[in-house]
Amino acid sequence: MSHSIARAGAAIVLVIGLITVQAQEQLSTGRASRAVVLETSLPAIDRGLRDQDPPRPARTSVESDRLRGGASIVAPQSIIVKFKDGVSPAGAAGATAQISGDVADRSSWANFDIVDIPAGADPESAAAAMRARPDVEYAQPRYRVHAMARPNDSLYPNQWNFPAIDMERAWDIQPGASSDVIVAVLDSGMAFRNITIRYESNRSFQLTERGPTYPALGVVNVPFAAAPELGPSGSPRFVSPRDFIWNDDVPVDLDGHGTHVAGTIGQLTNNGNGTAGMAYNVRLMPVKVIQGVWDEIFGSAPGTDDTVARGIRYAADNGAKVINLSIGREDGGAAPVVTDAIRYAVSRGAFVVVASGNTRADLIQPNQPNRLAQFARDIDGMVAVGAVGRTLDLAYYSTTAPYVELSAPGGDQRQGGTSAGILQQTLDLDLLETYERPVSQYGPPRADSFSYAYFQGTSMAVPHVSGFAALLIQQGITSPAAIEHAMEQFATDKGPPGFDQSFGAGLINPRATLRGLGLAR
Amino acid sequence: MRRSLSIAAVALAAIAVFGTTSALAQSRPRPAAASQSNSVEIGGYAMFGNISFTAADSFDAVTGSPSGPIFGGGARVGLPFGGLFVDVGAWRYRADGERVFVDDGEIFPLGIPVEITITPIELSAGWRFRIRQAPKFTPYAAGGLTILRYQETSDFSTEAEDADDTFNGFHVLGGAEYKITRWLGLAGEASWSTVPDAIGDSGVSAAFDETDLGGITFRAKVTIGR
To answer: Residue B177's closest CA among B126, B124, B221?
Structure first.
């Protein structure tokens, strides 16, 4: 009763605050804007375990392009160009004149340029024309990047994934790393802060070609809260937050993917609540580089290769020792801008982990590579990670390719149902994904309500490896290359003997790796 | 360990000096072809010294040093056949270290304590060269079998993950004894031993491709008996 009164009181205060508090910060991305209307929100709501939801597939481009009808894999009217050292601004302008392009002001954490091209021009052709020039190091379209998993549907006994890789004995050796290690989560954002943000929903949309039209919602205030199992809002646990989608320092999560991934890395553990995380004492750096559906509805900039590259450079420059990329794309060509950024991050001492992809079971084009992962074998200090299910067999969706270097639990709900996914706390999808409801029930999302949900995908495998890397760093293996070699040396071989395209060197073995080598044993 | 080395060196030097002094007091000493011992002589000894392992990189990585102190003792029986003797000795090397990861020669200590214990039993046969002009000074040489017990225990290990194995090898040694009194002497000796294929299947020794648990040992002895 008193709890209800308290919540009602808090709600009244919040409403008054919304009415009286002026927008403190106006944030613009050019074509869309959002504003912080209140530096707080109602306390987070924990709606418990969701283990009865039907499984949903691991994410691929098709899943992520629903709002766009799957038509656009690149951001229009611009490409990414890296001019060779020594090329002057005038030289660059002259070069881009060839494609009637203009060099835009250089973005932060970028060693490349975005070149605006005329409406209607083909970004692939424009990039090809620029690549042919001797003064250009690389050029590529701005491919859209998406999350590599799709939430499905909840507490440690439900987390089969940790015993499966002997984590309990690994934690005996290295209990959760420490706040000295920063893990950057480049994703859809993270539920790390209590805040209320005003968005504008100015356009209607269809989720499917013949589906109903969801109307524009106008101005909406969206309440956000820090996920209770990640840490309280304002906690020093969250460092250097950055949003490259909305270009500010409030990378809150409007999707649930990033929060789930962050949970597997660093969910608060041994607190008697909820679920556990791999490296539960690390600090987390939320870096938003991909859109959720709501970001897109609210008109944000897309998350493209250059966005990811900037995020990687930002994370490395701000002290991240592990960079988690549970993201990728299958469409389009290579991603030299991302390759370059990852090489930079590794040179700064950051270990980079990326998802191998979720396309093995794709009916039309199985095993399309994740373009952000396919160069992993060329970089010591970066690993591409495949997924296994509860039986420790390869997950049905996990892309098989020469670049797969390790495997880790990602869940396989085709073998074991909902609870065979990876369980973590994330945003309550019932209150978030209102676009999944009938039009009559469609309304603004809430990002202050949480539940424990099972997700599956190589996205879920990646944070196991990122958390594992944090434990190794804490234990004393600090060089990115050595981290990769240690993981591979002690991996439990799966599939054909030795390295293979399904499991790479095998299933990660944190306990054996952390234990290292004696003289004879 | 350095202290042990110093003590061993001092002992060896003392033996050398005493021996040299004795020798200088004589004109051109020559070792006797063989002593004319017609009785069984029984003696015992305590020893200390230092071993430098053949698997130097492995020991250096785990214990922080490719060598370490040893302590032991044994018994010697002089046989009634000239200078022929047999010897049974045992010593122990024990070191604390930490588990590591080795990547391309770079060593990453992991902070997990490991304890290594090596206990060889050396069965030797050899010859003592009695010098008529310096009866207190007796060089000797010997060789024989080494039976070596290797034990490795680490924190966070199961019994199966620890090591407790016995290996066979052989050794050769040479030294000299100086009799302070009829029953008490000091000796210094050097020994080379090999215990092949004892390590190298896993652990740091596999990373460094080192398989031999032998090494070169310098040791000083306090002897009792004739």
So the answer is: B221
C-alpha A305/C-alpha A294 separation (Å) is 20
- Tokens 């024309």 correspond to A129
Distance from CA of B132 to the nearest CA of A (A): 49
Tokens of residue A235, six digits? 């906690």
Give B73 to chain A, closest Cα distance, Å. 26
Contact B207 A516 (CB under 8 A): no
Q: Helix, strand, or coil here: B203?
A: helix
Least Cα distance to B115 among B97, B90, B92 occurs for B97
Q: Under an 8 A CB cutoff, do A479 and B103 touch?
A: yes
For residue A384, give Cα distances in angstroms to A367, A375, A516. 14, 9, 22
The number of residues in chain B equals: 226
A519/B112 CB distance under 8 A: no
- Is the pLDDT confidence value at B214 over 70? yes
Task: Note the pTM of the prediction, 2 decimals.
Answer: 0.83
CB A352 within 8 A of CB A345: yes
Q: How many CB atoms lie within 10 A of CB A76?
A: 14
For residue A477, give the 3-state DSSP assignment.
coil
- Residue ranges of chain A with pLDDT lower than 50? 1-2, 6, 10-30, 69-71, 149-154
Judging contacts by C-beta atoms under 8 Å, the chain B residues touching residue A178 are none
DSSP-assigned letters across all residues of A196-265:
EEEEEE---EESSTTSPEEPP-EEEEEEE---TTT--TT-TTB-S-EETTTTBS----SSSHHHHHHHHH
pLDDT confidence of residue A207: 86
Contact B199 A520 (CB under 8 A): yes
Query: If we measure between CA atoms, which residue out of A508, A506, A443 comes closest to residue A469?
Result: A508
Question: What ipTM describes this predicted complex?
Answer: 0.82
Q: Is A478 on the interface with B (CB under 8 A)?
A: yes
- How far apart CA A237 and CA A241 sit, in angstroms, is 11
Burial A115-145 (b: 16+ CB within 10 A, else e): bebeeebebeebbbbbeebeebbbbbbbbbb
Q: Is A475 on the interface with B (CB under 8 A)?
A: yes
A335 CB burial (10 A radius; 0-12, 13-18, 19+): buried
Chain B CB contacts of A173 below 8 Å: 112, 156
- Taking an 8 Å cut-off on Cβ atoms, the answer to whether A517 and B111 are in contact is no
Shortest distance between the Cα of B207 and any Cα of chain A, in A, equals 9
Q: Which of residues 132-171 of B touch A (CB under 8 A)?
A: 150, 152, 154, 156-157, 161-163
- Residue B224, phi then psi, degrees to nearest 5: -130, 135
